[in-house]
Amino acid sequence: MRLCLFVVLTVTPWPVWSHLQDYRAQEEDPQPITTCPVDGCPPSPPPPPKMFSKLLRAIIMGPPGSGKGTISGRIVHDFGMKHLSSGDLLRIQIMNSTAAGLEAKKFIDQGALVPDDVMVQLILNELREITNHSWLLDGFPRTVPQAEALSDKLDIDVVMNLDVPFETIKQRLTARWVHPGSGRVYNLDWNPPQIPGKDDVTGEDLIQRDDDKPETVTARLRNYENQTKPLLQFYSAAGKLVSFHGTESNIIYPKVKDFLATKIPQVADQSQSVKQ
Description:
Layout lengths: L13 H15 L28 E5 L6 H12 L2 E4 H10 L3 H11 L6 H12 L7 E4 L5 H10 L4 E6 L2 H9 L1 E3 L6 E3 L26 H24 L3 E5 L3 H12 L6 H9 L1
């Protein structure tokens, strides 16, 4: 009698066998489980600061009384930009007796407007000296030919326009009264004198400067609109214009700050990157 033994082999497919091996390996060498104390895990480290590849070349525009000076000051404080007033640059160039400054002085002494080509060269002389800072140009350009000449020499990144309703500006400016002897300024809306029309300290009469009279303010705003509208259209067509709407600086500036934070680091971020 013959005894036949059969050995039956069960073949496990290779992918399944591979998973089984991985499972056994985990059993033999389990991965550590992260646990936190009762009061919770420590906060995750902050993300690294944003990396910005270039400096920002910006222009700020806004009608008189729009809060442009206030907002420019906050931009300088929060982002470390160089604020460049065209009037200040003109005075510096004249004081330093540069060729463009001396040429501009000739027209100023005659009571004439400084030609566009002279003003552009004068502004460029200063801007070319700023190589390691983002800057904010204020008060220039004022006309489309000036903007075209400036764009031919420099690549402007953005033009920020403060869009404040003219009625708001008119109310703000015409509510301003001054004590001529001391220069103390009162505003009938938010800083009125204790006695209407009288200085709080001396009791003397307050006056309204010619620039603050309703008819003067209206004429200034109308002139600004007529002069600036083509300029805004020029920068809008070039894809450079960003407008910020609001009735006061505390409403407009948060929008400006959020926008600039996408372009350049804030002062706190800059100091952190230096420490790192």
